[in-house]
Specification:
Blueprint: H1 2-19, H2 24-39, H3 44-49, H4 61-73, H5 77-85, H6 88-94, H7 101-111, H8 116-124, H9 136-151, E1 156-157, H10 158-173, E2 178-183, H11 185-188, E3 193-194, E4 197-203, H12 206-214, E5 219-225, E6 229-234, E7 240-245, H13 251-259, H14 262-274, E8 277-280, E9 283-286, E10 291-294, H15 298-304, H16 320-325, E11 340-341, H17 355-364, E12 369-375, H18 387-403, E13 408-416, H19 427-432, E14 435-439, H20 448-460, E15 466-467, H21 485-494, E16 498-502, H22 512-520, E17 525-528, H23 540-549, H24 563-570
Parallel strand pairs: 4-7, 11-12, 12-13, 13-14, 14-15, 15-16, 16-17
Antiparallel strand pairs: 1-3, 2-4, 5-6, 6-7, 8-9, 9-10
Helix pairs in contact: 1-2, 1-5, 6-7, 8-9, 13-15, 20-21, 22-23
The structure holds zinc ion (2 copies).
One zinc ion binds near residues 343, 345, 414 and 530.
Length: about 575
């Protein structure tokens, strides 16, 4: 928690320094430190307590002093000083995807544009036209960036909300007298963005629990503090958290009620009425005598309605209730089913750890195998591999496998699909690899037909096993590229290419909706993390959640196979 706050401050400092045209090394040091903080396993306050704060790899003396300052005072004075130089409007404008520091400064200084609303008005009324350095394309990008920002406004990526929710739950669990506690709402359904955090809890004595909640250090402002319900706004993200204390006998009913979705719950209530019951957040009641007949657990609630318990991820009224009546719900994939993480980067390209470090960490997570899939050469900014360096990497992997016990390392590459569908590496070399991921990293703006043809051409080569982050979207930053999904999926079926479920929290690509569509065409999937350092391997759960929301079972996802069968699949037994 405190780490996220520090990361946010470091990033903001970097933004401001960028506006000031400050030293590039300094800016990069802040950005890098922000990344490090985000991935740190231990909270900064704990590190300070145990004297380990000054030894965080990748964070120098100067920045670790700032972390200490924040832990002790809740502020970083450098940041406070820098903020004074700029009205916040400038930072708002800079926060729009596609608007860089130069443009922001120009608009702010020369035209007095100091809010997103003002910028939008200027763009829409043609008043940005003719400003030096602003092309028509820039204006279109600005409007698109504003729309994107708005599309998730008030909602937060699951990757932001879930860890915060779990951290707060952890703190409340530590309170004496706390009984059952669960996250409800869309966070429990693992939607890719969530509006707020709902926590349900039972407690012998709600008073102390609420006291503890409103005093948590994560909280910026308390909106209300009642005997059974309190709400607060969190620091930095300004996300709202609601904590409700419910009675033990109602916990399951309340959990179902607050988990939703609305459409799912409406159907449940109709079912209850048909049976002569009344269903609400307090329980299931017999309408003849108003006696509660279920409510303590969700299982009880679904049982008395004659239903199989429905996993939260698929409570969207998309056929799950009908199947639950017949007790025929599919068994969904679970976290533990994934036996190998097969998309990750190392120091060979833009990752920051070695093959051995990645493999050992994966081993400690219980994986049986991983695949190293660094970028290919056309991705210059990521230091993509040319044939020579790919060959050395292959040798290093062979050597690793010879000496290491346990985890197996597969040879792979995330090869760029060039603008015409050719692959950015010699076919002969790709053929020697265990796994080839074909991805698009450039030329996102191709028209639909061209993009579709490009991806189909790549699959036709027979060299690609998996399409990486198939839609290219980044939540809140970049829309998916235009592609004809039916044609793409049909081709993937024909050429037996799997679709990636990229678990990186801002990617989650394919989306749940597209997963379901691809599944209906009989496609196979791989759930991967696209890790650029070992800590990012913890993201796998987000991909598994997306897979569950897409109704996938274990057999739909290829990297649930053990090493031998996975390799056999890659070799063509699909
Ligand atoms: Zn990629
Ligand atoms: Zn990648």
């Amino acid at each position: 928690m405190v780490n996220d706050e520090i990361a946010h401050i470091f990033n903001s400092i970097a933004d401001i320094l960028e506006l000031k045209n400050d030293n590039q090394f300094r800016i990069r040091a802040y950005r890098k430190a922000a990344l490090v903080m985000n991935d740190l396993a231990d909270d900064a306050d704990k590190l300070l307590e145990t004297g380990k704060l000054s030894n965080i790899p990748g964070i120098g003396k100067d920045l670790s002093a700032k972390i200490e300052e924040y832990v002790r005072t809740g502020k970083v004075s450098t940041f406070e000083e820098l903020k004074k130089e700029f009205r916040p409007g400038l930072l708002d404008i800079l926060s729009i995807p596609g608007v860089g520091p130069k443009t922001s400064l120009l608009l702010y200084d020369s035209y007095g544009i100091d809010s997103i609303e003002k910028l939008e008005t200027y763009a829409n009324t043609g008043r940005l036209k003719g400003i030096k350095g602003i092309k028509d394309k820039t204006i279109a990008n600005i409007l698109k960036g504003i729309a994107l920002r708005r599309s998730i406004q008030g909602r937060f990526p699951l990757g932001t909300a879930l860890p915060v929710g779990e951290a707060i739950m952890g703190e409340l669990r530590g309170n004496r007298g706390t009984g059952s506690i669960e996250l409800a709402g869309s966070i429990r359904r693992r939607r890719e963005t969530v509006g707020d955090i709902d926590i349900l809890v039972t407690a012998d004595d709600p008073g102390p629990l609420m006291d503890r909640f409103v005093q948590l250090k994560e909280i910026e402002r308390v909106l209300s503090r009642g005997p059974t319900r309190s709400s607060a706004i969190l620091k930095n993200t300004h996300m709202q958290v609601d904590v409700r204390v419910v009675e033990k006998d109602s916990f399951g009913a309340a959990l179902a009620y607050f988990t939703g979705s609305k459409a799912h719950n409406i159907k449940l209530r109709e079912l209850a009425i048909r049976k002569g019951y009344k269903l609400n957040e307090y329980g299931v009641f017999d309408t003849r005598n108003d006696k509660r007949i279920a409510g303590a657990t969700e299982q009880d609630v679904y049982d008395v309605l004659g239903l199989q318990w429905v996993p939260p991820e698929i409570r969207e009224d998309q056929g799950e209730i009908e199947l639950a009546i017949e007790h025929r719900l599919p068994e969904l994939i679970a976290d533990g089913d994934i036996l190998g993480d097969v998309h990750m980067h190392t120091v060979y390209s833009d990752g920051d750890s070695t093959i051995g470090q990645m493999a050992r960490h994966a081993g400690s997570l219980g994986y049986r195998y991983i695949a190293i899939t660094d970028h290919s050469q056309s991705l210059g900014i990521a230091r993509g591999l040319d044939p020579g360096r790919l060959r050395s990497q292959m040798e290093e992997i062979d050597a690793f496998n010879e000496t290491s016990m346990g985890i197996r390392v597969l040879k792979g590459m995330e090869v760029d699909i060039l603008s015409d569908g050719r692959l950015d590496m010699d076919a002969g070399l790709l053929d020697k690899l265990d796994i080839v991921i074909g991805s698009i990293h450039m030329g996102f703006k191709q028209p639909r037909e061209q993009m579709t043809g490009r991806m189909v051409n790549a699959m036709k080569t027979g060299l690609v096993d998996l399409i990486g982050h198939p839609s290219g979207r980044i939540i809140g930053e970049r829309d998916a590229y235009e592609v004809d999904w039916d044609t793409l999926f049909d081709a993937a079926k024909k050429y037996r290419v799997a679709m990636e479920i990229n678990s990186f929290p801002l990617r989650l690509d394919l989306t749940d909706v597209m997963i379901k569509k691809a599944r209906s065409k009989g496609l196979k999937f791989m759930t991967t993390t696209d890790s650029h350092d070992p800590k990012q391997m913890r993201y796998m759960g987000y991909g598994v959640s997306a897979a569950r929301r897409g109704w996938l079972g274990k057999h739909d996802v290829v990297n649930t196979k053990d090493h031998k069968d996975f390799v056999r699949w890659l070799k063509g037994d699909r």
